[in-house]
Amino acid sequence: MTASATGRPGSGSSSGSGAGAGAGYDVIVVGARCGGAPAAMLLARAGYRVLILDRARFPRDTLSTLYIHQPGTALLDRWGLLDQVAATGCPPITSAMHRMGQVAVEGAPTPVHGIHAAYAPRRYLLDTLLAKAATDAGAEFREGCRVTDVVVEDGRAVGVRWRTASGSGTDRAALVVGADGMRSVVADAVRAGTVREHPPLTCVYYGYWEGVPVTRFEAHAVRGRWVGCLPTNDGRTLLAVYFPQAEFEAVRRDLPDAYLGGLAAAAPELYERALAGTRVGPLRGTGTQRNFFRRAAGPGWALVGDAGHHKDSITADGITAAFQQAALLAARLGADLPDPARRQAALERYALDRDRMLAARYSDTLALARLRADRVEARIAGLAHDPAWVQAFFDRAAGTGPDLVPVPGNRSEEVPA
C-alpha cells in the first residue's frame, strides 16, 4: 500500500526527516491491523484527523487463527466491508461441529443483526483491506514506520516518536491509540499496568492444506489435545493443533511428527483426510499464548486489540475482539475528543466497558485452554439431546450469548450486540 495524506491542518505538529512533516493530527494510531485499522477508519469517518503508523509494509501475512465470528462479521457489514471480505474468495462458514472425545454437537450460532456467516480470510488480504478502508476514510497511513516511544508531557500522552529507513521524527496528537500487539510499545511507554493475568496454558502450530476440503468450522478435542479446522482462501484448509504449554519445547523439536500425532489423537478421521491431501508451506506456531488485561486507557492514550487484552487463541476470538474494541472506543469518544475533560471521561467509560464486554469470553477461553475434554464429555452427552442447550452452546462459542452482549451505555450505535 502507499501512504494517503489528508492534507488537512491540525492542532498537532510533526518534525523530522520522514513523511508527513508539518502535519497535525487529532489521533495517532500505532498498528494497522485488526484493532488499529478499524479504529482509525471509524475515527476518520467521524471527522477526526488520523495518522496510522505500522512497522510492516502491506500486504504482509501474520500468525493467526483467521476466524471472524458472527459478531465480527456483523461489524464488517455495518462498516460496509463485508462484501469486500467475501470477494477475497474465502467461503462463508455457516455451521460448526464440536467433538469432545466421542461426543459431538453440530449447529450454528444465532445470526447477529441478520448476519449468519463467519469468515476466515488470510490475514495478508484482510489486513490490507482494513488499512485501505482507513485511508479511504481520510486517514494517513505510513508503512515501514516503527514507533519507538510515546511523548508524555505533564503525565499525558501527546504524541509519538518514530523511525523509518530514511529518518526519524515526532508527531503530536490529542490521543495516542496503541494497537501494536501483545508486545505493545505504546503500552510499555505509558506504563499501562496489567490488571488481570493468568499463565499461558497452550501452545499451537498451524498448517495450510490442499485436498482436505471442509465447509464448516470443526473442533476436535481429547484430554491434552485440541484441533481446529476451517476453510480459507484458495481452496485451502487451516488445521491448528493445540498442546499443553509445558510441551512446547518438545513439540517444537519434533515437528512435524508432533503436529501429525496431535492431529491423529484428537481427530483421527481428519488425520486420515490430511494424509490424503498436501500441506502447503511450513508449520508455524507459538508458545507465547499469554492471557491478560492491561489497563485500557489513561490520560491521552487508549489500547485496542492485543495491545490491551490478549488471550489464548483456542477460541479464535482475537480478530472479533479487536473489531469490538475499535467500535467501542470510537463510540465512547463520539464528539468528545476535542475537549480534554470530556475526552478523559470518554476514555474512562471505554476502559470500564471494554473489561465488561470481554470478561466472560476471557473466562470461557481459559476453561477451554486447559485441554480437559474428558471432564466435559459426559456433561455434553447428557445435554446434546436438548435443542435449547445446543443453541446456547453455539451462541456462547461464537460470543453471541445473552450474557456476552456488551453493556453499551450512551452513544452505543457502534457497539456490537
From TrEMBL:
<dbReference type="Pfam" id="PF01494">
    <property type="entry name" value="FAD_binding_3"/>
</dbReference>
<protein>
    <submittedName>
        <fullName>2-polyprenyl-6-methoxyphenol hydroxylase-like FAD-dependent oxidoreductase</fullName>
    </submittedName>
</protein>
<dbReference type="InterPro" id="IPR002938">
    <property type="entry name" value="FAD-bd"/>
</dbReference>
<dbReference type="InterPro" id="IPR036188">
    <property type="entry name" value="FAD/NAD-bd_sf"/>
</dbReference>
<dbReference type="InterPro" id="IPR050407">
    <property type="entry name" value="Geranylgeranyl_reductase"/>
</dbReference>
<feature type="domain" description="FAD-binding">
    <location>
        <begin position="25"/>
        <end position="357"/>
    </location>
</feature>
<feature type="region of interest" description="Disordered">
    <location>
        <begin position="1"/>
        <end position="20"/>
    </location>
</feature>
<feature type="compositionally biased region" description="Gly residues">
    <location>
        <begin position="9"/>
        <end position="20"/>
    </location>
</feature>
